[in-house]
Amino acid sequence: MTQRGAPHVLTGTRIRERRLALSRRQADVARAAGISPAYLNLIEHNRRPVGADLVQRLAEVLQVPSEDLAEGREEARIAALRDAASRAPEIVSGSPPELDQAPEFLARFPGWAEALMATARRSEALERQLVNLSDRMRQDPYLLTTLHEILSAVTSVRSTASILADEGEIPDDWRHRFHANLDQDSLRLSTTAQALVAYLDSFEAESPIFTPQEEVEAWMAAGAPPVDEAGDLASDAARQLARTHLARLEEERERLPDADLSAASVDQADAVSIAARLGAPLDLVMRRLAALRPEGFARAGLLVCDGSGALTLRRPAPGFPLPRPGDACPLWPLYQALAAPQTAMAHLVVTPEGRRFTTLSYATRSQPSGISGPVLGRAQMLFQPAPASASAPALPEVPIGPSCRICPRADCAARREPSILLAR
Amino acid sequence: MVLDILMIEDEPNIAEAVRFILDRDGWRLALHADGRGAIEAIRDCRPRLLILDLMLPNRSGAEILADLRADSDPALAATPVLMLTARGDTVSAAAQSDAVLPKPFANDELRAMVRRMLA
């Protein structure tokens, strides 16, 4: 057993604290120390060991004696040992770990101690990966749709094959039909299974399970607990996004207080009327309605995209099909709004399952760098389940989907890739 | 002629196989392939048993079932329903049904369930 992982626990934290004290970017420090930013990120979060040579290099970059970074290694290792013991499965019989003897154990058996700590770290990483994979299996619309496709094809094959095998005499026309159905379903199974395997292959085993945006969405769905205590925010990027999001919410709440918005929305059915009553910018009113969700907007969701069409905020509404980040339906009215800034557009969108949502889309343009700077576009779409048809306003109806890959609309003019649902 | 069974299922090959099996057992069966118009089809047919897929286009089986149970005609609202499911998280969605048959199912399993529900 080597000593490569020995001092990693507190050392990483100290490296991070020192870097932040110098206001240095992680990427800059990593480059100067000859390692990748991703590896430094893992070190700083005590997820990778850091040897003496690297501590020395980082100490030079951070202009601090290397002893300062490595200091406390024994205490850190003792803490890690105790942590490993606390994570051990409950011991039904026999003695529990002698926590008070961790220092002596470490001194007498450093190799065994290191093996125990490494095992605990590995166990923790695997537990986290398992939870993330489990979440993905339950929530990923692509996986759910694909598995449903496979199950439907298997059901058909099983029933049809069973008829051919067990039902005795079968009229020729039926027999031919069943053979054709089997051929069709086997082709569909093959195509869908290949698509599923390709999708699963795209998961990189060592890469983060969620993108920072997905982490932030999970954090928002959990009620946006304090950033530093939020288990959903695993990456620096996600925590930064979350802080930016909170700061913007606060700033917008000051511009348009909760009480004013709630009062203005009591008898107003749409955001345009509310904005007019308040004399407030429509885009601000839309974002505040999605954040506060006052009466009449309790089930509202919000999509925001930049000028390239990339979604920068996704607040779901019940039943609206949101695909994975990076995927979207080009027919969402959000994208039409980009082409006509400062124009509010109302639509009734219909999902492939027949769910109907009223949408209000609105785009703005700005030049934050002044007259000679670039013109930046941004569009947002406020949406919520449509009221019953009797009371629904007359709006242009737009058939939409989640994303091309899992959309069953065969005749869509905006399709950019084949759907697995059309392989049948 | 009284209809025994109305099956609402959008997968044509599954519907065809089920139709063959239940026809052979002597049941009078009609098919409807879409969530849209399903409740109207039930009102028109007034089947003794409804076989209802959970995942349907335009309107889910759970929504159709809720509409049926809320129908103003008490006899229609009480129509026995056998729900076909393909997903593991559908216990609550199928709560108002009388029986649930997970996909994929064995033909004999379906036959026995239909016999029991129409007895």
UniProtKB/TrEMBL annotation, chain A:
Organism: Paracoccus maritimus
Record protein name field: Short-chain fatty acyl-CoA regulator family protein
PROSITE patterns xref list: HTH_CROC1
HTH cro/C1-type domain: residues covered: 15-69
One Pfam family, short name: ScfRs
SMART domains from the UniProt entry: HTH_XRE
Species classification: Bacteria, Pseudomonadati, Pseudomonadota, Alphaproteobacteria, Rhodobacterales
InterPro entries listed in its UniProt record: Cro/C1-type_HTH, Lambda_DNA-bd_dom_sf, ScfR_C
From TrEMBL, chain B:
UniProt keyword annotations, A-Z: Phosphoprotein
Modified residues (4-aspartylphosphate): D53
Pfam families per record: Response_reg (PF00072)
Superkingdom of origin organism: Bacteria
Residue ranges occupied by any Response regulatory domain in the UniProt entry: 4-118
Name this polypeptide is given: Response regulator
Source species: Paracoccus maritimus
Lineage: Bacteria, Pseudomonadati, Pseudomonadota, Alphaproteobacteria, Rhodobacterales
